Amino acid sequence: MKKKIMIIAGPCAVESREQIIRIAKKLKELGVDVLRGGVFKPRTNPNSFQGLGDEGIKYLIEAKEITGLPIITELMSIEQVRMYADKIDIIQIGARNMYNYELLKELSIYNKPVLLKRGISATYDEWINASKYITNGINRRVILCERGIRGFDTNTRNVLDIQAVPYIKKNTNLPIFVDPSHAAGNNYMIHDMALAAVAAGCDGLMIEVHDRPDEALSDKEQAITPSELSKIIDDIKKISEVIGE
Ligand code: PEP
Ligand code: MN
Hints:
Blueprint: E1 6-10, H1 17-29, E2 34-36, H2 54-67, E3 71-74, H3 78-84, E4 90-93, H4 101-107, E5 114-117, H5 124-135, E6 142-146, H6 164-171, E7 176-178, H7 180-184, H8 190-200, E8 204-208, H9 226-243
Parallel strand pairs: 1-2, 1-8, 2-3, 3-4, 4-5, 5-6, 6-7, 7-8
Residues 12, 182, 208, 218-219 line the site of manganese (II) ion (MN).
């Protein structure tokens, strides 16, 4: 039996109404499962594009209405969770907020899937413990997402810790997703890292896709095009036939 790999794809950031709807339609055609698009962006540099905020959520919801694709976006504060938990399908908690225990506790009172990214240099135990802040309440719907950890080589953005996949599978009952985009930081690596993650047994992938990568307002170096994603999806099917359930 072929294993189903859930594909979450979309731009790093929602940049305009037109941009997210245009990309969402292309991703729908490729059979993507969930549309991503950041609207509250935790940028390392405060002078970089910070996302469209509340306006961006409206565009993301419109893209969902047009395509039927469920949506995921990162929320960064308790206030944002209270405002938007009911309006989005999966709440993303970013690497920078994995240690924000008050935010995690707030998520424990919702029956809403949360994709919890691994902190930039978090150990497995710290990451798993962070997930327990959410599952200690009524919320059982946590997905863990490996997104690369900080290494010492500056040629790539982070180091994709593929070992996280078998470790999380052995030591938790939670699904494990992999985000090769923020790990590699370079678009030419995404195909190979995505396939490696699937071969290692991940349950899903989160990949940044932009139809005009050169124009992307954030993370343009790691954005792949819809046609590059299409090739990844085809190749994943071949691997998932080999690895089975
Ligand atoms: C993102 O997915 O856009 C993002 C900011 O990811 P991370 O929290 O892994 O850096
Ligand atoms: Mn990004």
